Amino acid sequence: MSDCSEIIKVILTHNKFLVLSHAHPDGDSIGSQLAFASVLRELGKDVLVANQDPIPDKYLFLSGVDGVMTTIPPDYTCDVLAILDTASLKRLGSLAGQLPVKDVVMINIDHHVSNDRFGHIMLVRPERSSTSEIVFELIKAMDIPLTPERAEQLYTGIVTDTGSFRHPNTTFDSFITGASLVKSGADPSRVASALYSANSVSRMRLLGLVLSSIDVVRDVCCLTLTREMVQLSGASMDESEDFVDFPLSLKGVRVGLLFREEGDGQIRISFRSKEEMDVDEIARVFGGGGHESAAGCVIRGELEDVKKAVVREVFKKLEEGKEQSTRS
């Protein structure tokens, strides 16, 4: 079901909450988690917030990040497990194996079209730009004040998931919500400075190495990020979060791909697209998912083999689109 009232009822009638989101946290997962947890604490609830991976440096300006853990304490128990911005439980990474499951109400709040609809209560709205936009609606429904700290957390989530209101998931409501958050105290200049004007030298070196790997075939552009590049630059892998956006800045490119070499033989692929090219369908072929214009997956294998398999599937999808266009 997709009704705020059921979640509000659970919040008001339970006391101990575990708030989680996906591995490799981004602005939306972090912003929505922090704002949701802040509301719970204002209501006097016992709250633990956790993610598999540490908060990336560029989000450390947000209030409450110092309280986010990367593990769940052994034998931890709670009344409610709230999972935000996460399409499937496996996206929790290592935390998926640490979940308290006995006598727990599981809440699923998300905006991914590929959401598995897990949990006892679901607030899944793919038409929303971000999970932060959904949490904003939930807070308004609860008639709880939007403090400047909460407003900035949610504004950051919307800005990052819409690419500063540039991506196709940006809607009229995204702008209205953004304006309301600014009115409530979010500082657009401060957020933009933290997100886009505080790059480290190591990140810029890593970006240079990744851009040098550029490979364009017709309307598909691929970038590759290897572990060697990370070592040479002195950067961390989480500093590459938005590198996948660069391919779409090229004229004529419809699909951008970033292949990131991770440990244990795993390759993380990020997809971006424009002109109504659905990359969520491609990511699902490889066990991933996301949105029509932004998706991802993880494949185990040799880097070059994985690249060939994914690019082959992208071209297959492009050809199908051309055939459908011709028939219509």
Please provide a written account of the structure.
The chain has 328 residues and is an alpha/beta fold. It has 2 domains: 4-196, inorganic pyrophosphatase (n-terminal core) (Alpha-Beta Complex), CATH 3.90.1640; 203-327, Roll (Diaminopimelate Epimerase, Chain A, domain 1). Helix content is 37%, strand content 19%. The strands form 2 sheets. It has a 6-stranded parallel beta sheet, covered by helices on one side. The protein has a 6-stranded mixed beta sheet with strand order 7-8-9-10-12-11, with helices on both faces. The relative contact order is 0.10. InterPro entries: DDH_dom, DHH_sf, DHHA1_dom, Oligoribo/pAp-PDE_c-di-AMP_PDE.
Quick recap of the structure?
This protein is of the alpha/beta class and 328 residues long.
Indicate the topology.
Blueprint lengths: L3 H10 L2 E6 L5 H16 L3 E5 L17 E2 L10 E5 L20 E6 L10 E4 L6 H11 L6 H14 L10 H12 L4 H9 L4 H11 L3 E3 L2 E6 L1 H7 L21 E7 L4 E8 L5 H7 L3 E2 L3 E7 L2 H25 L1
Parallel strand pairs: 1-2, 1-4, 2-3, 4-5, 5-6, 8-9
Antiparallel strand pairs: 7-8, 9-10, 10-12, 11-12
Helix pairs in contact: 2-3, 2-4, 3-4, 4-5, 7-8
